[in-house]
Specification:
The protein has 447 residues and is α+β, with helices and mostly antiparallel strands. It folds into two domains: 107 residues, Glutamine synthetase, N-terminal domain (Ubiquitin-like (UB roll)), CATH 3.10.20; 287 residues, 2-Layer Sandwich (Creatine Kinase, Chain A, domain 2). The chain has 15 helices and 14 strands. Strands 7, 8, 9, 10, 11, 12, 13 and 14 form an eight-stranded mixed β-sheet that branches. Strands 1, 2, 3, 4, 5 and 6 form a six-stranded mixed β-sheet that branches. Strand 1 and strand 2 form a beta hairpin. Helix 6 crosses helix 7. The N and C termini lie far apart (67 Å).
Length: 447
């Protein structure tokens, strides 16, 4: 607390955004005068209504399974995590960000909160003497402003005076066309302490990918949440939008959040490769767990109706849980790396996924594989896009399979599962009531 207070005074912070994410990873919270925030650090309570964390993607309150709880809409105690306190870039007067957890009742963390769920998964690992290491690769599009959501998205005008209309994967000059917004993103990430690594131009028009430096899963999930806020703001300052929607543009590549995952012991020694550099039984079981349980946990890594438009055997978006070495047609890839960097890349999560849930789900699938001593399938060779898909084809199927998966549901906990499922089911119900332009185009005058 004293360090946080000193940092706030030194940086002349005037306001603090106390941020908490909901089921969809959307940041909600309050902007506090700095003196009120400091009083909270000294014991004064900060509250937020329960309903703020039970909001669907369309802004509607999903309610709660317990009707009395839903009607009373009790307050939850906000508990700022001072490890996340950082400067808010490009905001005047000087402002800070801090991520918070929620407690309900006031003396215990609310188990339905995705950030709390990830903490509980990491505690499971710690009990085994394991420590997970993750590295997200996050794709997103820059687009021109889209005031009418019924209109198709277009690329923004680049520094060369033109809009991208063709693919430029890994094109350095094409990357430079978006230098103003990219420079803002890099500079703002540096101010906020979000460590970014490689930046590339991806397959789609004005589609980019940022790699975050590997590390602790909770910290990396925090960084993904903060990066999205920074990227959207930087793009807006440059007259564009940044979108992390899984499939925002017809006939263009979707946007993923590939997760590189490894497990080490408490001394930092890899548990995925032995002294000779061969895969350990634990690594094989971990992979077996991913193959068995990822299809049952898809709502956590593909959480929206749009997510399933991205998943298909095209444009580096596999629809399978095959595994192989350095083969991007597989849903589970073992990258080229030395013994100490032995890891699996889960290529199925979308950029739209809540990072806390996508990471928690991946770790839980591997955990169950080790606990159940599951064997991985034989390595897929050649074009795994041709492999039969075992994944749900849409959100409705995915929710049904998650509900029926007793081992995963037990680890998630009923409070989280019921809360999450209610939000997602209400979103699905709302979507299915919408008549689409495709239906009006092809059915209105022909059926």
């Amino acid at each position: 607390m004293s360090e946080a207070t000193d940092w706030i005074r030194k940086n002349e912070i005037v306001e603090v955004e106390c941020l908490i994410h909901d089921m969809n990873g959307v940041l909600r919270g309050k902007v506090l005068p700095v003196e009120k925030f400091l009083k909270a650090l000294d014991g004064a309570a900060l509250y937020i209504p329960t309903s703020a964390l039970l909001v669907c993607a369309d802004g509607r309150y999903s309610g709660a399974v317990d009707e009395g709880f839903a009607t009373s809409d009790p307050d939850m105690l906000l508990v700022p995590d001072l490890d996340t306190l950082c400067a808010a870039p490009d905001i005047t007067p000087p402002r800070a960000f801090v991520l918070a957890d929620a407690c309900y009742p006031a003396d215990q963390p609310w188990s339905a909160l995705p950030r709390i769920l990830l903490k509980s998964v990491l505690a499971l690992y710690s009990q085994k003497g394991w420590r997970a290491v993750v590295a997200p690769e996050l794709e997103f599009y820059l687009t021109a402003p889209n005031p009418d959501p019924r209109d198709a998205l277009t690329a923004p005008v680049a520094t060369n005076g033109r809009r991208e209309n063709s693919q430029h994967p890994y094109d350095i000059e094409a990357l430079e066309w978006f230098e103003p917004v990219l420079r803002k993103i890099y500079d703002h990430c540096a101010i906020a302490g979000v460590p970014v690594d490689t930046l590339t131009h991806e397959t789609g028009t004005a589609q980019l990918e940022i790699n975050l430096i590997h590390g602790d899963p909770l910290k990396l999930a925090d960084n993904v949440v903060m990066f999205k806020r920074i990227a959207r703001k930087a793009a807006a300052r440059s007259g564009a939008h940044a979108t992390f929607m899984a499939k925002p543009i017809d006939d263009q590549a979707g946007s993923s959040m590939h997760l590189h995952v490894s497990v080490v012991d408490m001394a930092g020694e890899t548990l995925f490769a032995d002294r000779q550099g061969d895969d350990t039984p634990m690594f094989r079981h971990f992979m077996g767990g991913l193959q068995k349980y990822v299809p049952e946990t898809m709502p956590l890594i593909a959480p929206n109706v749009n997510s399933y438009r991205r998943i298909g055997p095209t444009l580096s978006a596999p629809a399978n849980v095959e595994w192989s070495h350095d083969n991007r047609s597989c849903g589970l890839r073992v990258p080229k790396a030395g013994r100490d960097a032995r890891r699996v890349e889960n290529r199925l999560p979308g950029a739209d996924a809540n990072p806390y849930l996508a990471i928690a789900a991946t770790l839980l699938c591997g955990y169950l594989g080790v606990a159940e001593r599951l064997q991985r399938a034989p390595e897929a060779l050649g074009n795994a896009y041709l492999a039969k898909s075992t994944l749900p084809r849409n959100l409705a199927q995915a929710l049904e399979r998650l509900a029926a998966c007793a081992p995963m549901r037990s680890l998630l906990g009923e409070e989280f599962f019921q809360t999450f499922a209610r939000v997602k089911q209400q979103e699905l119900d709302a979507f299915e009531r919408i008549v689409t332009p495709w239906e009006r185009e092809h059915l209105l005058l022909k059926t």
